[in-house]
Model the fold of this input.
Amino acid sequence: MDYGESVQKVLLRKIRKTEQDLLQLKLDYCRFVFGLSHRSRVIANSQCWIVRAVDVDSMDHTEEGGYSKPALTGVLADSSAVTEVVSLGTNWELEKSR
Done:
């Protein structure tokens, strides 16, 4: 293996690690700033949903220096039957504590 290949492998490992770190930081941001976790309850389309996935790639930088709300997918909260996962987009609010 020559020097160029060795440098490329090292850089690719560092890029992958940095991408993983950024993903985790964005998930932490969602948890602490927006109150989101995997099982959070949100209101979207006038219904209550349980969050199944948070799309951190949908987050944009805001003028204030933060990030915009992420797009979510979820299932209806009050359905006793297993329902399909629905894309909720970014137009959601965290459900107020009961």
Observations:
- The longest helix spans residues 3-34.
- The chain has a mean pLDDT of 91.
- Helices lie at 3-34.
- Strands lie at 41-44, 47-55, 71-76, 86-89, 93-94.
